[in-house]
Amino acid sequence: MASSRKDKKSSDSVASSSTRDLLNHELAKQVRTAYDRIDDRGTSACLFGSGGTCCRHCNMGPCQIIDGVETMIGICGATADTVAARHFCRMIASGTASHTDHAREMVRGFIATAKGETPHEIKDVVKLHKMAKVFDIETEDRDKNEIALELGEKALAEFGQQDGILTMTKLAPKKQQEIWEREGVTPRGVDREVCEMMHRTHMGVDQDYVNLMRQGSRCALADGWGSSMLSTELTDIMFGTPVPKRAIIDLGVLKEDMVNITVHGHEPLLAESLCLAAEEEDMLALAKKVGSKGINLAGVCCTGNEILMRRGIPVAGSFVQQEMVLATGAVEAMVVDVQCVMQSVAQVVKEKHTDIITTNYRAKMPDAVHIQFDEHDAMGSAKSILTKAIKNFKKRGQHYIPKDEKVDIVVGFSHETINYMLGGRFRASYRPLNDNIINGRIHGVGAIVGCEHFKHGDDGHYKIAMELIKNNVLVLATGCAAQSLGRRGLMRPEAATEFAGDGLREVCETVGIPPVLHVGSCVDNSRLLIALSEMVREGGLGDDISELPACGTAPLWMSEKAVAIGQYFVASGAHVIFQDLPIIGAKNFSKYILNDMKEQYGACWDTESDPVKLAQKMIKAIDEKREALGINKKQDRVLVDMAMRRDLGAEGLPGAGCGDKG
Ligand code: BF8
Ligand code: SF4
Q1: Which helix (H) or strand (E) holds 87?
Q2: CA–CA gap between residue 225 and residue 259 (Å, rounded)
Q3: How wide is the angle at C-alpha 569 spanned by C-alphas 594 and 85, nearest 5°?
Q4: What is the pTM of this model?
Q5: pLDDT for the residue 45
Q6: Which end of the chain is more exposed for a tag (fewer CB within 10 A), N or C?
Q7: pLDDT of the residue at 636
Q8: What is the enclosing helix (H) or strand (E) of 218?
Q9: Whose CA is nearest to atom 2 of ligand 2?
Q10: 594 CB less than 6 Å from ligand 2?
Q11: Residue 557 CA: which ligand 1 atom is closest?
């Protein structure tokens, strides 16, 4: 199909060299991508939609509301504030529902694994016992599968629970729990909060934006401290808690002489099964038989993050690269499950040998092949998928892999790893991290999370991270943001020497970590909640998360999940800055979100469209916390001496960092 790209193209602003390389190649010009669609459609948004004041919650509408104009409220009388709040809350509900359905599948897979019905096993027994303690489960003289089964069943019950509180909220600092109690936002059951949120945003129910957002917070907290956290922790127990690993990222991870299979989406159950099946003799023999050297699995988006963190499987591309991965013509199959899979992928491969294989009954698309993943026959499903992909190898036609476009990264920074690496080899604790924040070597912690966005430049995360690390802010990254930072070389330990401020550089060099740490997928933002809680518990940095010198951003957000994540961070006391929010058409609601919410949770939202200014706002927020804690004094700089090196376990961990002796 001919390209419709015009003279001034949206793709001109692409900073990623691999994407640019491919876009300039004849092969990519034969397919239509998001860049073409933006050029064709234009980027100017409807003012009502982008301001959050278009309501279509009933059939008397759609009503476009103009704030302050009496004749332009909804037919039902709904004001701009009500409409914008309802819209915001529905995004939270949708985001929470998405994380919840993902988490439920993981818990069901966990139960099946505990019963011995999957090819997986309970790998992290230490974490199993920790979680058992949180859930009051007896562990003495009990088999790991027996404990896991009880844990899985208790976890599953949290989704449908009607009363009480979600168990994992007990891991938050005590003061945080008291704030939630005071505000009436402690989540009861995950599904209940989503259901109530949908109900309260129905026509003619909750019409008070503060009250609506109370349920918005409760619903979001059910996501962060409920479904997402359950998913992360149980997935870790089943597939292993991530530890530092070397890996590679970007389009160049595809291989000329191997069957390339990319896994795209979010739930790692299938991807883990594919990893196991790809090592089986019969699959390897089949791959050889078609003339390839083997099977090359590579990730896309958050499924990519999951198997990258736990297995070091390479990542071929992030959200904005999903079409590019296929445009190479070198992929035999893209296996997808749920979330962030663009419908266009099936069109990009229409003239190619590539199969798009949908695997989840919830998520089908025209022109794709469906092979349902059955967790009770995980190897059978995985092998059917691999077989289909392998058979495509011989049909591979014209293709182009930007071979030089791959970057080394070190990943695997679960909160346990951060604890272990910054806490020293022999006494894992957050003490040294807190001490380094107090003494000013590390100015604070900045989280860069979330999506990428075709309408904004693809170097936003990079610009923010560079500004932060230059100012000694340690960056923790998840989701596609993490992948974009990895592609730009900030997840190499050497990046600390090259780009970080003196204090952060010393700490990173001593421990052997990059200045930007890959913490995982988007559900793994729950790891950040635990890390922040542990920092509070360690002492010296206040009594709750809102006092910590920390700030978060999801600058290039596109998914509703990012709004749920943002709200659970704000309601947990962490200041959050996005590039924009659909609230500007409602004055009072905007003021509430961007300011007044602070009175309830000690944190609020902020927006800033320029990446460098956004980073500076994050630094300012961190400064204010340091000031309030009384640790912003200029101190004589003490270089890291031998004793400190010993304390920090300066040998580093095998497989990662400058201390790598492997
Ligand atoms: O859950 S960062 S584009 S892939 S929504 Fe989607 Fe956004 Fe990527 Fe992961 Ni998260
Ligand atoms: Fe219009 Fe009210 Fe219906 Fe919304 S709920 S579409 S504002 S009448």
Answers
A1: helix 80-114
A2: 40
A3: 45
A4: 0.95
A5: 84
A6: C
A7: 54
A8: helix 209-222
A9: 76
A10: no
A11: 7
